[in-house]
Amino acid sequence: xxVCGLLHLSGSREAELSSKLNxxxxxxxxxxxxxxxxxxxxVDGPASEPLLEPPLExxxxxxxxxxxxxxxxxxxxxxxxxxxxxxxxxxxxxxxxHTQRLRITAExxxxxxxxxxxxxxxxxxxxxxxxxxxxxxxxxxxxxxxxESALREFIFALLxxxxxxxxxDTAPRAExxxxxxxxxxxxxxxxRLLRTxxxxxxxxxxxxxxxxxxxxxxxxxxxxAAERAExxxxxxxxxVRVGGTVSExxxxxxxxxxxxxxxxxxxxxxxxRVLLLHGYGSDAHEWRVVGALDALAAMGVRAxxxxxPVLCRHMRTMLAPKxxxxxxxxxxxxxxxxxxxxxxxxxxxxxxxxxxxxxxxSALGWGSSxxxxxxxxxxxxxxxxxxLSPQHxxxxxxxxxxxxxxxxxxxxxxxxxxxxxxxxxxxxxxxLLVWGTLDNAFPPVSLAAQAQARFFRRTKxxxxxxxxxxxxxxxxxxxxxxxxxxxxxxxxxxKGIRQGQAESAVQMVVADWSEASDAKx
Length: 521
Known about the structure:
Layout: E1 3-9, H1 14-23, E2 27-41, E3 59-66, E4 69-76, E5 79-82, H2 87-94, E6 98-113, E7 116-125, E8 128-138, H3 148-158, H4 183-197, H5 206-220, H6 225-230, E9 240-243, E10 246-251, E11 260-265, E12 273-277, H7 285-290, H8 292-298, E13 302-306, E14 340-341, E15 344-345, H9 356-363, E16 371-376, H10 380-388, E17 396-402, H11 416-420, E18 431-436, H12 447-455, E19 459-464, H13 471-474, H14 476-488, H15 492-497, H16 499-520
Parallel strand pairs: 12-13, 12-16, 16-17, 17-18, 18-19
Antiparallel strand pairs: 1-8, 2-3, 2-6, 3-4, 4-5, 6-7, 7-8, 9-10, 10-11, 11-13, 14-15
């Protein structure tokens, strides 16, 4: 298959373009059809925690039908894979965890024009016409990323110089794609077309956003790959400088077979301290490229981001059960029966996440210090047992949940004597809840998300517009601004910029969800 360019035109243009292609001697060869199901993760009714290891993401199931053969692919989370099962079986498997939201179809004739094949057809969202889809294939070139100039020239001539709404890159970056252009690339292009033209409100690509942040951060601080590998500057606290005010070090934590890598920023003896915990499949460097570590250091805060066992994409160490006082993964959420990373089995399993943060804080020498804990996504399974425990909640200056899971396992409600003495429990901890408006893995519509807002008495909602589950990655500047103001005690952004809109939006989506639930019942 040759490289392709894809574009969308408003209005019904199939007859016009077909007539034009026939008029210049192009040969009509066959019909083609592209069928796409857009699916979103199911939102459970009860306040059960969502699956965030890994988080479920929206998905597009695509089926390409051309003459005597067909193929189907799943595009999700910036990756694409071909399915080797029947389409019906694939749909049934997807519907076990996802709900179909939209059926997208494009079909029409294919023309052969010398070195080019042109496919023109109407685009339909469910049964509603939504313009015309044009796919141009440059047959002599099969290497992804090549032939773009030839495609653009042909499309320009085909449209008589008319500016197309979108011409997709011929080499979309995606996991699992070969060098030779194929239908997997075309599937990725189709989804990118839907996202770019906003024909469908798809969540932004987190993998692409994270890669762009990494490039921007390295460009900002002049960190070429060779410099990062061979010439890292020493940091004042004995670590290794990795850009900006951030340095990398290791710390030995009781119960771990190997030291834990941490990223450090800010004055060592600062009065305010923040612990930042990453989500599944990421690592501590996410907080570096987002800018949170540098932003906190700029205001004189000591900020540390550790790699978390099991969740970190590079870490291979876990707590040994025999060193946990006989507690070996008391809950299903804390037990990892056979965890491995990059094909390497962990040193010991299972792991009880309730003890990791307390031991890490002790190893850092923060045992008696007030600190703010920031947890993203699945890191809530580490953070909330620590934040809510009777032994530690009085040392928590604040908690920031970035669409994080929530567990009350260690929470002890205030006794009657505590209430008479007006001694508050962990529920009085100031909390900032940060969600993306396009979060499909753990939407604010879910009762589990609302349970967090109801638990903490001093809660502020923050909805980041256009952001997916990893909302701090998609809107880093706004996130860092709100985080800095929360840590400093000034919450003007949360109240003035988005807070009022966030509260009304959350109430609205909860009402919509409740009505949908009642209708199903």
